[in-house]
Q: What sequence folds into this?
């Protein structure tokens, strides 16, 4: 769960960085600075994925990523796409952790002869 979430957040950080290049031509320093802060916040949140705080902050950043579509309209589509990836990472990660816990509870497999 942690690895998938961190990967999605790292890719989102790169996405916002590239969106800043598009925003530089048409927008002022305030909106570009907000985008830069968003990129840094997303990247720092990737390190917090060990706890649920990371998932809560990541969900907040998903909303901010879609809202950045007001600055760069393509971010509406990309934000929605990454939100689907975020939800998938959470769901698949939980299933993977449940399977791992079940395997650990069963113990090691018997040796093959």
A:
């Amino acid at each position: 769960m942690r690895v998938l979430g961190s990967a999605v957040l790292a890719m989102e950080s790169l996405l916002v960085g590239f969106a800043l290049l598009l925003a530089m031509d048409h927008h002022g320093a305030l909106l570009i600075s907000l985008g830069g802060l968003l990129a840094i916040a997303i990247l720092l949140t990737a390190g917090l994925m060990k706890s649920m705080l990371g998932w809560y902050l990541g969900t907040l950043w998903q909303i901010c990523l879609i809202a950045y579509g007001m600055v760069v309209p393509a971010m509406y589509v990309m934000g929605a796409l990454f939100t689907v990836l975020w939800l998938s990472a959470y769901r698949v990660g939980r299933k993977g952790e449940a399977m791992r816990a079940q395997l650990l509870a069963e113990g090691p497999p018997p040796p093959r002869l």
Notes: Helices lie at 2-23, 29-45, 52-67, 74-106.
